[in-house]
Amino acid sequence: MMKTYKFYDTCSLLKNADHMFQEENVTVVISSITLEEIEGIKTALNKDADVKYSARKALRTLEEYYGNYEIVMFEPQFQQAIEGNNMPLNNDSKIIMSAIRFRDAHLADDVIFVTNDLSCKHLAHLYFGDNVESVEEEKYDYDGYKEVYLDEDGMSEFYSNMDKNLYNLYINQYLLIYNAADGECVDRLCWTGDGYRHIAYETFGSPYFGDVKPMKGDVYQALAADSFVKNKITMIKGPAGSGKTYLSLGYLLHLLSRHKIDKIIVFCNTVATKNSAKLGYYPGTRDEKLLDSQIGNLLSSKFGGRIMVEQMIQQEQLVLLPMSDIRGYDTSGMRAGIYISEAQNLDIDLMKLTLQRIGEDSVCIIDGDCKTQVDDINFAGSNNGMKRASKVFRGHDVYGEITLKKIHRSKIAMIAEDM
């Protein structure tokens, strides 16, 4: 079978490090210029954290697959060839000339130049014609469930094969079945690995919140409530006003009031809201500072006032722990409910460190919106801790993930989501 060579430039390598060695009968080729660029990006002061993380990941991938790719060393005569072809002398032209020399040395017409840089792509087309590709941008679209619309025949086929994973679900991924005729949700199921289980609408009661249950029959909230009960760790996502915090705290207070946990520990990274003015340092103890920040505002609004929050802290039923103090912390033996608030503002390292604090006798809820509410560029894109945790944990029998879609706070909040 004919071998294909794919020559990656720097930007395409950064975007496709996870997947470029997965293609059959394809040999990866890179220029020494790309290695120099990636090493420079890794330590550059003027690059954002997202790009620097991608550089570190690419170098780790190259180390893992060492010997499975070819490197073209840039030589002085390559520069002469660039000047002789009236090409601009820069790293793009050096990488392209490296690819040209590799193609000519191998007498191969099946060398594909891969780049996501538009100017580099235009130049590469002059020398590689149609053998120029781009790496498809990775999308984060896992909601923790699939929704299917079935007619009578479809329903019959599905319910006759309840032991088969017809929709290729992960373990603990949910399935919402709608009647194709009228769009009504007729069943809520969860794939266990051996078959499906039906789920019901859970209600969580506590003296603090009263009865907490899915609002107005919200099927997505019903899935989240089920995941809280069935899984050790749940990631709950969704826009502002969709009920993430209401459901999460309602469940943890339910456990606390029934002595199934001894305390609630809130892990928080108090990042200023994007594009807002920073007010500087707040006076007081650590708890007083946190209660004056966004996490204090959130808890006070849900608990009916700051006094209730302060009482729970004094009674050691509630612990507020900033990420700056989390290293070395261990919840083992605490029988705690861990609530990771505004988790979109965690990078991969912070999320990893946080989840490593959780002991066997604790449960955890990760609450955030990594699509629209990231407040710092350091936590954006492929460096986002929520996105990475989702990829690592999905499919494990301790984990569930749900994206809420309906906004219940107010009509104003619902309209504002379109801004």
What ranges have pLDDT less than 50 throughout 5 or more consecutive residues?
A: 273-279
Number of strands: 17
Arrangement of strands in the largest sheet:
14-13-15-16-12-17
Distance between the termini: 53 Å
Would you tell me the structural class of the helices and strands? Answer: alpha/beta
The biggest beta sheet is recorded as: 6 strands, parallel
Rg measurement, Å:
26 Å
Q: Helix segment count?
A: 15
* Arithmetic mean of pLDDT: 87
Estimated share of beta-strand residues? 15-25%
Q: Report helical residue fraction.
A: 25-40%
Overall shape: it is: globular
Lay out the secondary structure.
Elements: E1 4-8, H1 10-16, E2 26-31, H2 32-43, H3 49-64, E3 69-72, H4 76-84, H5 91-106, E4 111-114, H6 118-128, E5 132-133, E6 145-150, H7 152-159, E7 174-179, E8 185-191, E9 196-198, E10 204-206, E11 210-212, H8 219-230, E12 233-237, H9 244-257, E13 263-268, H10 286-291, H11 294-303, H12 306-314, E14 318-322, E15 336-340, H13 348-355, E16 363-368, H14 385-393, E17 399-403, H15 411-416
Parallel strand pairs: 1-2, 1-4, 2-3, 4-5, 6-7, 12-16, 12-17, 13-14, 13-15, 15-16
Antiparallel strand pairs: 7-8, 8-9, 10-11
Helix pairs in contact: 1-3, 2-3, 4-5, 5-6, 8-9, 11-12, 13-14
